[in-house]
Protein 1
Amino acid sequence: MEISDEQAAQALLRWYAEMGVDEAVAPQAADLYSWTATKPTPIAQTRTLARPAPNQAAPQTQPVTTEETQSTDAAIAAAEKIAAACDTYEALEAAVKSFEGCPLKSGAKNTVFTDGVVGADLLVIGEAPGRDEDQAGKPFIGRAGQLLDRMLASIGRTRTENTLISNIVFWRPPANRNPTPLETAVCRPFVDRLIELSTPKVILIAGGAPLQALLGITGIMRARGVWREIETANGTKVPTLPTYHPAFLLRQPAGKRLAWADLQSLAERLKDH
Ligand code: URA
């Protein structure tokens, strides 16, 4: 059977939609198959960084060369150096926005770093920006984000007053898939530095992916509701509470009872500080 160009184009569009490709964010398609663990997107930037060592008065400067960025390990090392050299939240935000070492960036429209109050005693860390977040450049603003807002409001928390929100990666993964270990590892130094600079008393970990990326634990069902400490690159320790991701709760409302218990535990802990 002959098919017309129009039918072929429609079939192609349907296939794209089934694969999760639901919008064009760049004039040219990103080559996702070139993203391998051994051949990451090279980092274009070359900059001199000051990384103060503990108890050291004069900061040392170390160049980050282009050669250093030719492997995944080098991309992580570059992220570590860049993040450690940021002494303010504003510097960190600018560094994340200009960082080219995470392969997710080339497929995203915007960098999605944080939303809320920097310096708040509560930091929420989710998984990854989705379509709405990528469009707006802000985390958790789609349906899951709206549920997160309602969950937080139930314990007197809002992103305009007393909560900061971020994710373990800062660019939308293609077709909203989970971020890979490589992608989370490259972003991790920036997450650590965000924790160090925004000084939360408590971190709410929303979902299994951030649980795995931040604490190395699999299985949100068993891990949720249990307080654990995260230790960042510079040795800062912060209590964390894993709970269900709001997107999971939208699909499985029965989980809300346990999420509610987690929120009560969170509110109690915040009262102590
Ligand atoms: N889900 C997340 O984990 N983060 C967002 O920013 C949006 C949805």
Protein 2
Amino acid sequence: MFAHARDQSSNILLEKLDMNIERAKWIADFMRQAGQKAFQQIALLRHRCLAGPLSQRLCQNAIHDEDGMRVPSLRPARHLFSSRGWGQIERMKLHPADLSALKVVASGRSLLIGHRGCARWRPENTLPSFRFALEAVADLVELDFRETKDGELVVMHDRDLDRTTDAMHLWGKKRVAVDSRTAAEIQTLDAGSWFHQRFAGTRVPLLKEALDTIYPGAIPVLEHKSGDPQTVIKLLRAKRLVSKVVLLSFNWAFLRQAHHLEPGLVLGALGPPSVLPDGRKPRKLLRLFVARWLKPMRETGAKIIVWNKRVSRHSVKVAHDHRLKVWIYTVNSTKLMKRLLATRVDGIITDDPLLMKPLVPYWGL
Ligand code: G3P
Ligand code: CA
């Protein structure tokens, strides 16, 4: 009888053990999938941590630097995750093979895109600006690139160096064009002091340095200002980042060439384009986003329309019907953000990603 009871209890134990093994396997599987998903979504969802009660505690943390400049800080956000949880996220960031530009673009959420990094709080198109955009939980980080005299790509919006560097002071010449100097020469300039003395000594980044800073924290959005498609594609291939970035241009002929050379690139057609397919400049009326833009835009291979604020709910719907995403630049007021979100745009490019904080209820979170 005892033997029978012992057998029975060991059977029960074995059953329990089997069950536990099954459960352990299930949990392990779940954790693995959750782990993979966690990273895929972390860049997408980071700003969700601003939703709900957490939001009250995050953006209120503004610091004043020694010159009295008000600089919002999101650093405390990290402490709101358990240290282990945040550590896992940080580690996962080292293996972001799954985080592709296409997945982020197609996520179905309105994306937050930092303009020239975070141009409101840091000198535009510099590494501090990109780092701040990451802290400000942008999903994607936009920058402008140009080709130098020696064929390097540097991050710079304007054609010349006057506005955002000390070139004029250092070289005693006005309007020195980016393409008239080598990258090494341009990197001797100060690209931070014009914005604020505390950024003195900040350099003009090479595009490859900017990519290393932004990715994998967010998806880089590279706006072509000059240079041929081969040069940027060569760099992206060498860094294995072809599927990890979005490439934009107002020059739709450039986009068509880029698409032909590297169909795997996610392209965004900036509008209105600098020139029409027939070589003319678009008239004023055509600066609106209207259906007649769709055909030439689709011919570029672009998946995203990146337009100014002149869009209507109807035009956004027409774009969506053609399986195109719509991003809007450059949106620097919460009122406008709210209006645009109501028109169901897919992305908002802003100098200040923190502006979206009061809009969390509208952001589809
Ligand atoms: O990426 C959109 C926006 O940056 C285009 O305008 O002049 O700021 O490069 P711009
Ligand atoms: Ca730009």
